[in-house]
C-alpha cells in the first residue's frame, strides 16, 4: 500500500468524512415555511372538535425520518377546552411532543417537478406510548424543496389518553390527524 502524501491526505479526508457522516445525516432535512398539523375528533350529534398547531420539526437520522409535533400550542379555538386538552388529557408538561418516525427507504421521494403518494408503516409516539401505525402521504418536489402532506388515524385509548368528556359530552377515541409541511434537503 502506498503511503505518499496524496494517499495519506485522501485517507485523512475519508476518515474525517466518515466521522462527520452522522452529523450530516441529522441535518439532511430542514423544515421550511409554515407547517400545519390538525386533529379532528368527533362526538355525538355532529360534534366536531378541530385542533391546530403550526409547530412541527422534521429531522433525519440514521435513515429514519422523524416528524415531531410540540403540543403546547395546539389550539381548538376555545381557551377552556385548550386548557383541559393540554393539562388533563395530553399532559403536555410530561409528554410535550407527538412523534412519527418512518424509515427513509420506505418513502417514495419524487424527482424534480414530480409528485408521488403512498401508504407506509411507521411508529407513532403519543403520551409516552409508542405504537406501530400506518399512514398515507403525498409529496411534490419543486425548486424550493418537498411539499408534504399526510394523514394518520390515532386511537386515544391505545396511547393511554383518557377520552375527553365535558358536561356529559364525550368524544370518540378515534382521532384523525392531518399534516402539511415543506422541507429542503
Task: Please tag this protein with its features.
about 180 residues, alpha+beta, Lipocalin, 9-stranded antiparallel sheet, two-stranded antiparallel sheet, 2 helices, disordered N terminus
How does this model look, in words?
This protein is an alpha+beta fold. The protein has one domain (27-184): Lipid/polyisoprenoid-binding, YceI-like (Lipocalin), CATH 2.40.128. It has helices at residues 5-26, 79-89, and strands spanning 30-42, 48-53, 57-61, 64-70, 97-103, 115-126, 129-142, 145-155, 165-166, 169-170, 174-184. The strands form two sheets. Strands 2-1-11-8-7-6-5-4-3 form a nine-stranded antiparallel sheet. The chain has a two-stranded antiparallel sheet with strand order 9-10. The chain is elongated, with a radius of gyration of 21 Å. It starts with a helix and ends with a strand. The model is unreliable at 1-27 (pLDDT under 50).
In which order are the strands of the major sheet placed?
2-1-11-8-7-6-5-4-3
Q: First CA to last CA: what distance?
A: 38 Å
State which percent range the strand residues make up: over 45%
The stretches of 5 or more residues where confidence is low (pLDDT under 50) are 1-27
The level of helicity is 10-25%
Topology:
Blueprint: H1 5-26, E1 30-42, E2 48-53, E3 57-61, E4 64-70, H2 79-89, E5 97-103, E6 115-126, E7 129-142, E8 145-155, E9 165-166, E10 169-170, E11 174-184
Antiparallel strand pairs: 1-2, 1-11, 3-4, 4-5, 5-6, 6-7, 7-8, 8-11, 9-10
Question: What's the gist of this structure?
Answer:
Helices cover 18% and strands 49% of the residues. With 185 residues, it is of the alpha+beta class. The protein is elongated.
